[in-house]
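Hi team,

As requested, here is the filled-out complex form for the 2-phosphoglycolic acid run. I kept the field names the same as last time so the parser does not choke. Let me know if anything looks off before we queue the next batch.

— J.
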Amino acid sequence: MRRKLIAGNWKMNGLRASAASLIQELLDGISGAEPSFELLACELLVCPPACLLETVGGLTAGTPVELGGQDCHCAEAGAHTGDISAVMLKDAGCAYVILGHSERRSDHGESDALVRAKAGAALAAGLTPIVCVGETAAERDDGRTLAVVETQLAGSLPELGPGRPPIIAYEPVWAIGSGRTPSTSEVGEVHGGVRRWLEARLGAEAAAAVRILYGGSMKPGNAAELLAVPDVDGGLIGGASLKAEDFLAIARACG
Ligand code: PGA
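And here is what came back:
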């Protein structure tokens, strides 16, 4: 059974004070929650900007809220001004790292090959990579959604060995931050297609262990129906992860 993962991608948002209050509200919400967190059907993860990892990690340590980075370099250390490595994220208390988000692919020209190298470095450092894929509006209009997603998967996923598998996040580029989402049947088609793609390469058992998240304008109002789609194993949440109440409402929608 795959446990759902609700992951907050804070992007470039938050300062120490606002991050600390957001985490405090999340933790208060969890401990006061009915049903309590232990009864929630999901894992919770927050991915703050790198400079807030220490503040956030100090508050989440020992709680059920896990910590992740938003990107990492593919090398362990060295002359790479402005970058941070997977080993550094691990050292800062992270268990996960988001890789190949469409904003990294467009803002920083990240290729599938680079994302794959980063994902390999993340696995080697003991982090679980969350590898993002998704089509643009034009690609969907051309009927190429699944082909685009499969090409990105083939190019971006690391070699899969024993140990915790990577996570895949399907995020249609046109749905991110737009308030628009694909229909549940469109989401189901892509997630089912990704599962079949994994089965063909890894075999049924290994493919069944991979969690496939949906991301793009997931909100309290649409979370329950999106999370009920077969093969949707959680959400990667941007805007709605910046409000504790909304993030917790999405987590509760897991079941
Ligand atoms: P959104 O972002 O929830 O604000 O659409 C999702 C993401 O980019 O991961």
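Two things worth flagging: The beta strands are 4-9, 42-47, 65-69, 96-99, 128-133, 167-170, 212-215, 234-237. Residues 169 and 213 are 4 Å apart (CA to CA).

Thanks,
J.
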